[in-house]
Structure formats: C-alpha cells, structure tokens
Amino acid sequence: MFKKLWLIAGVASALAAPLALSQTAAPNAPAVPFAAPPQMPYGLSINVDKAKTIAEASVAEAKKNNLNMAIAIVDTGGYLVYFEKMNNTQTGSVQLAIEKAQTSALFRRPSKVFQDGVAAGGEGLRLLRLTGTIPIEGGIPLVANGTIVGAIGVSGGSGAQDNMVATAGATSAR
Prior knowledge:
Layout: E1 5-6, H1 11-16, H2 48-64, E2 70-74, E3 80-85, H3 93-107, H4 112-120, E4 139-144, E5 147-155, H5 159-172
Antiparallel strand pairs: 1-4, 2-3, 2-5, 4-5
Helix pairs in contact: 2-5
C-alpha cells in the first residue's frame, strides 16, 4: 500500500507557497498573515516498516555529511511511529526532532513555514504561541497517493542541514 510513498515534488515549497505572508490586502481589510491550511487530506498512517526505510535513508544522508542526527517519524496524529538517534547526537535534539515531525503532521506543512512566519515579525510572532508547533526548519510531511500519511522531523545540525536530512528520508521511498 505504501509502495508509492513519495514526497510530492517540492512539497516544502508547494505546501509553503500558499502560506507565505500576504503581500496585498483590501484597502480597509485587516491583513491576513497566512492563507488557509493546505487542503491535502490525511490518509492511512505510515507503518513502522516504511518509517524504518525512511529513517535509514536519512541516517545515510547524515553520515554522508558527517552529521549526528535525531530522526523521528510520526503518524497523521503526530504520534511517534519510529525514532532513531545516531551516536554522539546532542541530547537536546531528541525532543526537537519529534516536535518538528509533529508540527508537520498536525498542520500539514513543513515546519519551516512557521520559522519563516516568526522571522517576518509582526503578526507572525503569534506563531510562537500556537500550540503544537515548533518554528524551526527540519519537519516535512510525508505524502502517499495525494494524502498525508505522517511526517519526518530531524534535529542535530543547522536548520538547513536538518531539512536536507529530512528531505533525503522523505524522498527515499518514492
């Protein structure tokens, strides 16, 4: 069933694009900082075998780049399905990886969207209090057959490194 698990090409940008800060608003209308959530539906949650395959690809990418990472795969409800912490990964990365994955699963978008919203300031700062989110790059929804089946979260490097390792895992199961 998950033979065709794949990350929609450019899911990070595809899901993030409609969520970008609004550049225009009606003259007397209040500014709307974010568009509505993506309308991609949730599907049957990822299973542990597929989660392990995704984590293996992420570990391989981390090793290739001499990085020590914590890698979390969650289901559509944000519940942990599989977790791996590479040797010498900083302890603080454990919970961060899980929270990045939860953010992406629960809000159907990459965690970088929230990072960008906070960085923009203004109304974007409200995201700091949005329950269930962490505004740090490294969480990506997992998509199969046009539905979200879970998410991956990675922590241990810079945000860009975390995202690179998460993307390697997510795209490995195409």
